[in-house]
Amino acid sequence: MRLPRIHISPTTYRRIAAATLASLVFIMVTGAAVRLTGSGLGCSSWPGCEPDSFVPRPESGAHGMIEWGNRLLSGVVAAFAVASVIGARLRRPYRRDLWLWSLGLPAWVAGNAVVGALVVWFHLSPLSVIGHFLLSIGSVWNAVVLHHRAGEERALDGRRRPLAVPTVTAAARLLVVAAGLVVLTGTFVTGSGPHAGDEQADRLPFVLGDVVRLHGIAVVLFLALTLAVVAMARRGDAAPVVGRRLRELVVVIVAQGAIGYAQYFTGVPAVLVGAHVLGAALVWVAVPRVQLDLSEPAVEATVPSPARRSPAAATAPAGGPAAASTGA
Prior knowledge:
Blueprint: H1 10-36, H2 61-90, H3 96-121, H4 126-150, E1 160-162, H5 166-192, H6 208-237, H7 240-265, H8 270-292, E2 295-297, H9 311-314
Antiparallel strand pairs: 1-2
Helix pairs in contact: 1-2, 1-4, 1-8, 2-3, 3-4, 4-5, 4-8, 5-6, 5-8, 6-7, 7-8
């Protein structure tokens, strides 16, 4: 008996990609909750909770259950990542670029599981915790790209058509550097401050006030650069979709900055720290969305649709920004 072939539509696959992205953001927040409740060493071993028990023992208490529960959620996230890979193979029409991007998701998740083991084995070493967080950010970035590309049409010979003039594109690329600086300095704040995950955990040898000020400066520079790019886009040097993505980024940065200042001046309460972790994830959703909408697939040998073209691109001569193509 021949089994029926299973195919899924592009719409269904994009929903799978969206669910995977949501799960990766969610596990970042629950991972922070483990640390914020002091449950970072609720399980003293890995992959089992204890050396002689795969699950928490009764004496592990709430901390053990919280840490173990987060590990179970990690398994759910891994299942979503695998579903994205399988879905990319079953999607019709099949697209190799989606298949390749989907392969990154289980790789990120597996890598983070290994680092998660190191976090336990090194008793919440700040550097291992920072690595754990940065890998989570990387997986979110991968999922954002996959979700975005799953909503695009197949490009003509892999070519893409710019939706902004080169100066806007170059300035927008700097946002990635600025966002990376904000995230990195933020991890120094986390590694130097309270909520280490366990009372016995080591802290980075920095003065908390100093790294907080460094992080604050990075945030201000990030916001200023974003506002400058917004102004450039509003002059008509980019398509409306680019301006929209930039405004979304501004909202996220301002909200994240407000939470950061609020938590600092209120004694760093756990609830606000958790909200700040969610905000960090959302920043890293918004930044690549700006980059992805700087161009669109060249699906046919015509100029972009008026709804997505900028006035500058619409009037560019042949061979100018509207006609040039960039790598996918």
